[in-house]
Structure formats: C-alpha cells, structure tokens
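Lab notebook, bench 4. Continuing the backlog of folding jobs that were queued last week. Each job is logged with the same field layout so the records can be merged later without manual cleanup. Today's entry covers NAD-dependent succinate-semialdehyde dehydrogenase, a 480-residue chain. Filled in by technician R.K.

JOB TYPE: sequence-to-structure
TARGET: NAD-dependent succinate-semialdehyde dehydrogenase
LENGTH: 480
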Amino acid sequence: MMSYPDTLLFIDGQWQAASDGRTLDVLNPATAQVIGTVAHAGQPELAQALAAARRGFAVWSATPAFQRYQIMRRAAVLLRERAEEAATCMSLEQGKPVAEAHAEMAAAADIIDWMAEEGRRAYGRLVPARLMGVTQSVIRTPVGPVAAFCPWNFPVNQVVRKVSAALATGCSIIVKAPEETPASPAMLIRAFADAGVPPGVIGLVYGTPAEISETLIADDIIRKVTFTGSTAVGKILASLAGTHMKRVTMELGGHGPVIITADADITRAVSLLAAAKIRNAGQVCVSPTRFLIEKGVFEAFRSAYVARMQALVVGNGQRSGTQMGPVVSQRRLEAIEALVNEARDSGAKVETGGTRLAGPGYFYAPTVLTGLTADMRIMNEEPFGPISLLCPFDTLEDAIAEANRLPYGLAAYAFTGSGAVAARLRDTVRTGMLTINHIGLSLPEIPFGGIGDSGYGSEGGSEALDAYLDTRLVTSMDYM
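JOB STATUS: finished
OUTPUT FIELD FOLLOWS
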C-alpha cells in the first residue's frame, strides 16, 4: 500500500507550507486513524494567492486559446498516467472503493479534454447592422480571477470542473479544496502545473472555510465565485458574492426523487438504482433518495431492492471486492444516524440496515425505510448517506406532486414503459436534470446543475463556460 503524502499549499507556482507552520490532520474514514497532514493557510498565504492570481490572469488571458488547449490536453495525459497513485490516495482519504476512485480519475481527464476543446470554440458573433458601414461585434472575454470552493465527496471531480472551465476561458483560479481530502486534488493541480500552466494561474489553499471564503469573495481581485456544497452554505456565499457584484455558479444540495411506474422494467430499475444509491456511500448530491413507486409494483420493487442492499459488501475501500466504503467522518455518521432514528421513532419501518457497523471507521449499513410520511425530517432534509426511502403512490399526479414538494431541484429519476408518461414527467417534474430509464448524468458534454434551492448555473456542457466569460458589444462605423 502506498504511503499517504502530506499536502502543501500551491501558490504562484510553488508548493509551500503555511508561514506559521499550521497543519490539519487528515483521517482515513475506514480506520478513523490519522494518515497525514495538510497545510493550513492564513491571511499571509491568502494575500499571496490573490496577488499571484492577478498576475496569472494577465498572462493566461493573453495566451492564445489554442496554446491553452495544448497545455490542458497535456494535463489530461499526465493525469491518466498518474491515475493509479491518485485513485489509491483518494480511497485512503475519502473512503470510496478504489474502483470508484479510478472512475473519478478517468472522468476528470475526460472533463479536461472536453473543456480544452470547448475553449477553442468560445466564439463571439457578428450581428447584422441596420445602417451601412456599421459593424456590430459581440465578443466574449474572460471574466477575471475565480475563487472556487469544493467539497470532499468528489475531491477531484468537483475541482476539475471548475479549474478546467476557468483555464479554457482564460481565467486564473484559486481553489479552496477540502481539508478532509486534500491530497488527491493536489495531485490534479500538480498535473496542470507540470503540463505548463504558468505560475499564478492556479492557486490551491486549505484552511478555515469561513476565513478563506470571506477573504477571497470580498477581495476586488476576484471576479467570479463557484461553489459546490450544501444549500445553507451556498446561500451565505451567494449573498456575500452579490454584495460585491461577483458572478456566481452554485451547485447545491438535492433530495433526488425517483418515479417508478407499474409498467417499468423493475429488474433494470433495481439494478441501476441500487448501484447509483451506494455510489460513494450515498454521499452524492444527485443520489436517488425518495423512491416513489406505483402501488401495483411496490412489493416487487421493495423485495428485490432490499435483497440487493443486503447482499452488498461493505468495508475498507482498499480491499478487493468492496462495493461500498465508509462515510467520510464521525459527524456525517452521527447526522445519518439521527435522521434514521427519528424516522423510526415516528413510525417508519427499517427494512434493512438502520445501524452503524461494528469495528473501526465510519461505516453505516445500507438502509431501506418504508412507512414514511411527508412530515418526517428525513423526507425533507438530504440524508447524504446510504439511505433509500421507499414510498408507494396511487396516481402519477401524486408522484409528481411529491417529487416537486421540496424546494430542491437538482436531479430526478424515472423508470417507465410509457412514452406518454416520460413526456409528462419531462414537462412537469421541476428539476435541473431528469434521467429516464437509465442513469445518464455527469458527462462532460452535458449540463450539470440545479434549479430552486439546488442552485443555478452549470458545471458541465458548453453552458459551463458561460459564467467565466463576459459578453461585450463593440459597434463601430466606418468613416464615409
């Protein structure tokens, strides 16, 4: 097994410790043991990072798009070459099985490639004029230095989306990466640096989240803010960014509804949804959570789904054959436990799971609940863990009403054999992303983002670049 590296800050092209020597411990969630440290940035390091981002923006925004593309493609090649080490490191610090970590690294390289290509095609346009001799040019220019705030559940995937969009459009960026999982995003940043991204274009800091966000967002150097995380924190950061008139992308929480009609392929639905649910131990913003199942097939789905959950191999992500690892921390474990216990005390039935697992580490059994009511806290707050909530419905209108009941609108799922039902769900389910009869989210080329309390803006597709570009008009008349 590889040794876990201590993680430094990356500022102005240099890896460095904090000036006061502060560090934070990093724990392996499968053992609850300290495996390393991460440098803790303070005000001196944040000031250095901001000044470097200003200089980096001046260089990178003047770098031709084709040259930026070439450097980004080299970074993708390096990331693929280093995927084994990075995936093992990610599994150690985050807990997910190594196979899932490998998939995250492969997806990250694909995102870099796709964004690099898209950056070459961030075209402006000419608008036909009403007068002879007038030219009306719409040009798109990089917005400026970016501050990015990233969570621990996908420590590379969440960072690479933001960094790739920034670099593709000519922006510099300071990344506040997660203190719980610092080493794998640092490996991503190292790949960009080794590929030739100039000093100052990318900064990487860790520390106290509130101090870093308040400092970076308020500073005049930063012109755009991008955040992935909880709705509660997102609202605070969006408000702060709004005070300073900063462009914002917010990818926030969800409570993913799944609508399963009586004519659906139940075997296929169980297989795909079970795999999606246990991914990253359910710590996924787009995880399917509220399973709304037509009464005629409720029992068939329940029995097959519970059996699938009971058969899962849960354990250390470093071990061969592990299908689900631990949750990330003791705090997350306690939050999941409280939600399940409250639901059980209020009359919900635990079909399987509902307990911590014995031994060291932060393991919670894959859990299926039935007998739920809409007033239970677990039906209203994102559980962010391996929890499936199974609810029968009578009519499609009932299912749609429940799917739309919460203020969230990130991802929704449906399985149906009816084209008419699929079309109705497309038109009525209030969500940023809807996937029907398959799991089709998170690809580089398609939008990724929510509506309502799940945020705004996109972290995927060509739409992802929009928030990193200013749109400007230049209109001129030739001298006659």
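OBSERVATION: The chain has two domains: 9-252+454-473, 256-443.
SIGNED: R.K.
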